[in-house]
């Protein structure tokens, strides 16, 4: 034990501060105070008037004082000690140590001695103090009956004291603490409040020294089977006050919450104390329902949710409850004439008030007065209008009697009507015969079974009278024209007429009392028409409407026009329309048309799931062919398809990862959804919830808004916020090792969906980490696209990545990289849900992780793809690729057909059509194999690839018949057919100069909306340039405009199909084309413009690569090579230069390579949330004119090229050890701590470094400091001359020191 003499120190300080008082803080665990000491009494000094000793205590500490001597009189001195009640004990008489008790303090204590004499021997004091730690904790404060609970008692700082401690249960058991730590377990049979008390006494005399207590609440685990909940049903009259009564077996404790139709009515009626006598008895819970509460939900039958819960369990009980309202003013209605079986008719009933309502309908023959039909319906609430369907077998007069009743009222109403065979709808269309005036007229009739008189009039021709007999409910039809409905329920009447002009068709159909009139128009036959058919490429086979296509994400529909003759000069006007129908047999009418919120006058239609309300739609396309020379209509055609828009479901995650670790240094938890709400129409609602267990997270947002167990805020609501983002302060959360956050998104026309994130709280400080996803970031990822992840961490100096498969296998990835790219080869291993975890380590060795759960979607399966024939003649043989057997719950699959030519993949066709028909291929040699692959994708780009091949023999004579097909394709703006035809034609070089001009003119006008269309257009232009060249400046301007449109569409895609490989392919094709344009043109301004395009395309080409990734291939007209994006760690920030790899360069002409270096800004990928940037590179392939750093082919071949970096600011995070010498409160002291410096590099006369030093966690105020710096790596820095900074620092604050001097590397 240390004897402490404070007098001299305090005296010295008192002279400095000019006072005669002193206060000393005793921070040691124990010590002895002698005041004044003999040495101090022998000195001739003035003693202090007042001296205080403070012993600071934490909440789990106690101070134990033993007074050895108290020697003074009341006139000479006074000793003051605090009592438990906060008052002071004043001791001012001679007291022997044995008479003065040992004292215990459970809060920080101040011992004060006031001296009234200068005589040293007249006022003396001596005492010993001990700071004792005594903790009593438990593993859980709320447990189930029968569950073991562990408590831990810990005693520290009591060495040398005869201190006896024990733990007492309030149920009569005692355990003595014989060691420093005691652990014990206990389970409880009955619920209730149980306390553990820890007591310590001195010398085991029973004198109490301290008491600590911890309370455990034991609760029954609730379950539906144990509670046996029942609802005492009774009749309630709306809106009179009443009670809802529930019964259940007695368990303790239980809190209640009651909801009606998701409206919270009553919350938290809590039982108070456990009563053992009530075990197995029946409890009654009553809830008052006053008129105000009832008006919140209205009259009728409502769903009641009773939530019974405590801290360890919860049970939900569902039951209906009825509030009866009197029925008033009932009225029944139907049409004057109705149809006959098997068709039904509608009877409606209205009431001004009343619910619930049991409505019964009796149909009585007025002739026989017998009831011929009975039906009924029940309305639970909102019963102002009710509808029933009825059917009759015979014609005649009838009366409807309607009876509406509930528990408290009854009303009747009646009306009369007549039943007759009815005609419901008629659809009129026609089909012409080419080069003739003969037209075939089709009349489709839907009606009741029976006989009718029919009159058919076409134009001014004489009416044709006949008897119409409908004898079947369904008909089998053959050879029908395209129809926008299912024709099976329709009777078909055919007629042939000869006319030169359009005609009006009038159909009159009569029964005994009614006449039904329908009018339609048929066009004249166009004798000059080459159009054979119009077909929507929807993957369906045959005419009429099949099952609807379900639009899960988006659907692209395109049009094929089939011609039987060649006409070079014509144009096609397209018009898409959408009609909402209730079933596929409904004929779409003008009143059913809905506005398409997308381009509807192009050959390609993009339908997004959120563009139309959920429902069934007939999509119709009209094609009008006009001549370019006379601007007259040559032919018209149309086609239909049926699509279904299901209720929307958003696919999203909470940013940062599914599981994120947070250290004790994290004070605020931040959450954000991965979805961009601005892209979704409608009132989308966000609801954030927080729970300490995943089981407590609510499935519905209403349950989450009840005060309940499991809340992060201790029996509050789980609901936290309704904002786009969420921030939670750690100090507001109850202590826990983990938290769960759930975001539920809902809205009109949207299914409620949710995403979860688990926060694991570490027991020590850790770096702040977060996962950021750059590619393939949906909840269900695509196996064809790489997943690119970034571990965001400001303080991390090392990173690791682990992929944990469901089988238990763990794969180490992306060693010590901030970015991690999971390529297809890795994703193919992820067959079921797996985890990828990124871990960051700081300079102190602390680490934290973030985990993303990878959920692979299920790709299509069970089908096959074949090609026929397997061999043929190049440019001549027409091959057909067919896929079938991949149907997937009416969800249209996407088929993409590719082939490779000149190291570029060519997209021949894309869409819902599983067949690629009549395609020819070029041949490089006499015998040549062409590879074909089909990519078949379901929702979320869950894809499989089928590989096929055909063998070709080269023909000595090119096939010129494809020229007519090409001009029909480009005139109808059929990009898919153009892409298929241009592939062989560019190799055959069979177009004349004037034909090439027409092709360029037509292709320049192609509409492009989707990324796949951009890909095909880029392929077509590349084939044109490669096969036929750039003939004149007119062609150059046309191609440049096409490049502008392609760039714009790629930057602003209409679809979500943002495949990185496709974007790279588009960029590579465009760079190839642009390099040709720059070689052809001598216009300086044009070269400057196209150089800028090269820069943009280069960035686009590199955008999907991550720093340090493998190289990728690039090719222009005369250069073929590979290049990569540089990692920022590769670039030496101090020498101002770096290297760019161009391995395996092969040049053919005198083309040179111009290298440019770009720094991506915050709008480009791979910036972090701290706005740091990576040095990345992009390549421009030009002719080398006027560029700063041209590289000739000799220099570029098979070597690494070095080039100077532009003047760019840099930033680093090297950690250094800071040694400081500072003036501390007038004295001189040394302190050490960690600091970070940021540097910025300027290219002037030398490498000047701007240095920022942060000094943190200084306990004392400091004034002048001199810093010397030592890095943690092998190098070190020092300032050319020392710098000084004046200022003050308070605890836990920081201040920056600035040094603009040049640093030298040692």
Automatic annotation (TrEMBL):
Pfam families: REJ (PF02010)
Record keywords, A-Z: Membrane, Repeat, Signal, Transmembrane, Transmembrane helix
Domain of life, source organism: Eukaryota
InterPro entries: PKD/REJ-like
Cleavable signal peptide: 1-22
Cell compartment(s), UniProt: Membrane
UniProt domain PKD/REJ-like: residue ranges: 558-983
Principal location class: membrane
PANTHER family to which the protein is assigned, alphabetical: PLAT DOMAIN-CONTAINING PROTEIN, POLYCYSTIN-1
The protein, known as: PKD/REJ-like domain-containing protein
Organism: Clavelina lepadiformis
Organism lineage: Eukaryota, Metazoa, Chordata, Tunicata, Ascidiacea
